[in-house]
Amino acid sequence: MDAKKKLSIHELAKMKREGRKIAWLTAYDYPTARFAEEAGLDLLLVGDSLGMCVYGYEGTVPVTMEQCIVHCQAVRRGAPNTFVIGDMPFMSYQQSDQDAVANAGRFLKEAMVDAIKLEGGRRVISRIRAILDAGMVVCGHIGLTPQSSGQLGGHKAQGRTTESARALIEDALAIEEAGAQFLLLEAVPPEVAGFIARRLSIPVYGIGAGPECDGQLLIVSDLIGQFQAFTPKFVKKYADVAGVVTAAMKAYTADVRKGAFPAEEHCYHMLEGEEAGFRELERKYGK
Ligand code: KIV
After folding, report:
1. What is the pTM of this model?
2. Which of 92, 110, 179, 260 has a 20 to 30 A CA-CA distance from 273?
3. Closest Cα to residue 119, out of 97, 95, 139, 99?
């Protein structure tokens, strides 16, 4: 079978023009990245949602650059032929354009991702421009931006009032005008997201932003039923990994306790001709 071919930014733009939707997921580790590449996902995001999905934090704010880089490296190894986006964690770009370029550059140099994503609209335009000027590919992210959920009053859908929809449209136009290659809308009404997707020439993807976006993103831990702390309204669960894994662990525990595991087929035996020598040892060291 031919190896899968990684999509380029030109192919992704062409897919938008041709109305071909793309599917992407988050991934945080090597095995999941392998499954995703095998399953034919178009893009993978190593999201700072790893803070909740992998480390058990309450939100994304504590996530560090070091954690993001390590997880991007694992995903890159697992999915060498898939377009991978690294997610810039809180305080890796908020303070200055210089910080933003240096940290974005680390994602490329140390983890060989294909693009980076950062949260915010007009207020991060100079960061987006600086990263683009350094030759990198940028995905903007507006709507529900978890790193600033405190300012948003919680993890709440955005663009549900005329004023909030106007702010989203202006942010989206500014991000396209700055030169970003993609835009991600999170938790936005479908009518607003659909308008932005049609209005912009760059691909506009959605997570919780309805069916009219140019592609859909979901958090892999939600999709496979692994993350249990809460489930946003926009999630569709395609599997019950938590149920499957817990049942397997329970069965293993019961087998060990009743002596049913390990069985004969799980045992190594001494090499042929070594039994007599071992009986000697038993005699020598036995009580
Ligand atoms: O970190 C992440 O997975 C994200 C998505 C929720 C968009 O930023």
Report:
1. 0.95
2. 260
3. 139
Q: Which of 44, 45, 75, 116 to mutate to test the pocket of ligand 1 (most atoms within 8 A of CB)?
A: 45
Q: Residue 106: which of 72, 140, 61 has the closest Cα?
A: 72
Q: Supply φ then ψ for residue 202, to 5 degrees.
A: -80, 155
Phi, psi values for residue 249, rounded to 5°: -65, -40
Helix axes 97-111, 65-78, angle to 10 degrees: 30
The pLDDT value given to residue 1 = 56
Question: Can you list the positions of beta strands (E) in 178-219?
Answer: 182-186, 204-207, 215-218
pLDDT digits (tens, 9 = 90+) for 186-238: 999 999 999 999 999 999 999 999 999 999 999 999 999 999 888 999 999 99
Task: DSSP letter for 174, please.
Answer: H
Q: Which amino acid is at 155?
A: H
pLDDT tens per residue, range 76-114: 999 999 999 999 999 999 999 999 999 999 999 999 999
Q: Of 184, 182, 202, 191, which Cα lies nearest the Cα of 159? A: 191
Q: What span, in angstroms and rounded, lies between the C-alpha atoms of 198 and 39?
A: 28
CA of 277 to the centre of ligand 1 (A): 61
Hey, what domains does the chain have and what are their CATH numbers?
9-239 (3.20.20.60), 245-285 (no CATH)
